[in-house]
Amino acid sequence: MNLKRIVFALAFCLPVFLFAQESSAPQPKKISKAEKERIKKEEKELKEAHKAEERAKKHYREIQTKEVRKRMKQSRRKARKNNEHKETFFLFRIFKKN
To answer: What's the confidence (pLDDT) of residue 87?
Structure first.
């Protein structure tokens, strides 16, 4: 009976050990020259789009008045604090009007 269990266990484990020995290392991909150029072109377009977006943001901030820029900065800080889920400064919480 014990011999049957050993043989049974070996019958199921032996294929696992055999397949575990095979090398399944990933083969390096061969990319054609046209594919490389296409990838480079896409990356360049993304970079240019990002730069254009940053320039537009900068221009938008520059055309605002000083008061509006100040208000925008305060709003940005307040939004950042709310998104980080941080509590307000303890002195503000103590002396807050209910």
So the answer is: 77
Interacting residues of 81 by C-beta distance below 8 A, sequence separation 6+: 88
Over the range 31-62, which residues count as b (16 or more CB within 10 Å of their CB) and which as e? eeeeeeeeeeeeeeeeeeeeeeeeeeeeeeee
Question: How far apart are alpha carbons 50 and 54 in whole angstroms?
Answer: 6
Q: Which residue positions in the chain have pLDDT lower than 70?
A: 1, 3-5, 7-26
pTM: 0.45
Angle at 26 between CA 20 and CA 32, to 5 degrees: 160
Model confidence pLDDT, tens digit, residues 5-31? 676 666 666 565 556 555 666 677 788
Whole-number CA gyration radius for the chain? 32
**DSSP calls for 29-62:** PP--HHHHHHHHHHHHHHHHHHHHHHHHHHHHHH
